[in-house]
Every structure is written in C-alpha cells, then in structure tokens.
Amino acid sequence: MTILKKGLFLLLSAGLVIGIITCSTPQRMTVYDTESTCSVVYPNLNRSTPPAELQVNFPTPELEIYKADRKPVTTRFSSFDKQHVRSKDPLLFSSGNTMIIDFKEIGDEEYAFPLPGGKVISSYGGRRRHSGVDIKTRANDTIVSAFDGIVRMAAPYAAYGKVIVVRHYNGLETVYSHNSRNLVKAGDTVQAGQPIGLTGRTGRATTEHLHFEIRINGEHINPTLFFDFGKCDLYKKSFACIRKGGKITVAAVDRFPYQQNYLSYYY
To answer: pTM higher than 0.90, yes or no?
Structure first.
C-alpha cells in the first residue's frame, strides 16, 4: 500500500471512530411540562418534577379547665386556733388590704348549701346583732361543709354549743354551731358537701337548728352576700374584700380583665 493510500485509510478510520462516539453520547436537553410551571433538565428523559406539598400539623389547643380559686392560707393551727371561733390568718392579707374571691365559674361540685332544704328562721344582724343565719329543718339533720377546706376547730364553745369551724382555701371560714354531734375533728380535710355534723340545740338555743356563719380573717360577714338562702344556692359572682382597720368590707364586683388566666389578685 502506498503512503498516500495509508494516510487516506487512517483519516477515514479516525473519522469513523469520532462519528460513532458522537452518536452514542446522550445529548443534554430541557423539557417543559405544559401543565406545570416546574421544569427539569435531564438527559433524554421527559420527566416533570412533582409539585411539592408542605404539610404542617398544628397541635389542637386544650380547653382551659377551671380550678377553684385557692389562696395561701394557714393550715397548721395553734392551740388558740383550735379553741376559739374568732381567729385571724396571718397569710390572708399578707400581700395587701384587698382580696378577690371569685365564684363566677365555680363548679357545682365545688360548693354546697350547708343544710340542704333548710329554711331561715333568724337572719343576720338586726337588733340582736346576730353574727350568722339560723337555718332549720329537723333534729339531727345532716350538716355539710360549704366548700373544700380543713377543720380548724371542732369542740364545745360557750353559747355556740358544739361548733365546727372550717378554713377554706378560697379565703373564707364557715362556722356551724348548736350541733348535737360533730362528725369531724380539728385538722381533718373536708370536701364540699361532705357531712361534718348533725343539727341540735347545744349551747344557747331554743330549738334544733344550724347557726351558720361566714368569717374572713376572724370577722363575721353577712352570709347572704354569698348564698341565696331562698334557693339554697351560691351567688356565682366575684367579691372584693377590703380590710380597713379591724373591719372587713365585702362587695360584689365584675371580674378584672387581668383575671382571665388566674383567679385571685392582691393589691
């Protein structure tokens, strides 16, 4: 083979090899999906990018459960506390001279009328300066605690006869007297509606009945501010209790705006 023919042969072979390599290499192309704004660059394949989905699961908020208004109260009682109806609580007004008692959303299981079905035979105040309300049903009827609390006193006491004093976590104390029998003792924890005594006529009493008092920091308060004695029910309101000197003044008030998340406030 002559040199010219060899050169021509090599040139043709090289061209053939280059052509084969060029034809076998995939070409880069861009494909557009007419139904989507997404596009993808991919060798020789008609494939669209699936639309992305963002899914966020927010937790379902839990409903706020109302809890009965509870205040810091003294629950360890001295000998004096266990022997006298009138006793002050040093914690009750420790943050100021105003205290809020909130019964607006109190549950039915969180309070009880002290003598179910009872009828008032003697009201608060008047000429006798009566310190409570006398309620009558029948002898040895069941007396129940008005709210949750702890028994501060359960003993005979002068004209009160057999008396029970319960200190409640809402800032009140309730007094139940002339009992024929006390079913609890000092230091016992009681629940609203729990039996604590039986009606009688011990002490200075002319008939079997319950003498019922409400006290704040030792001072007796008109029970009709809190209880509807005609309906044997509690007034579901908010009350401002103001201490001035040795006196306590109580008035029903609307709930303050900042009481939405907590139920008591001290000035």
So the answer is: no
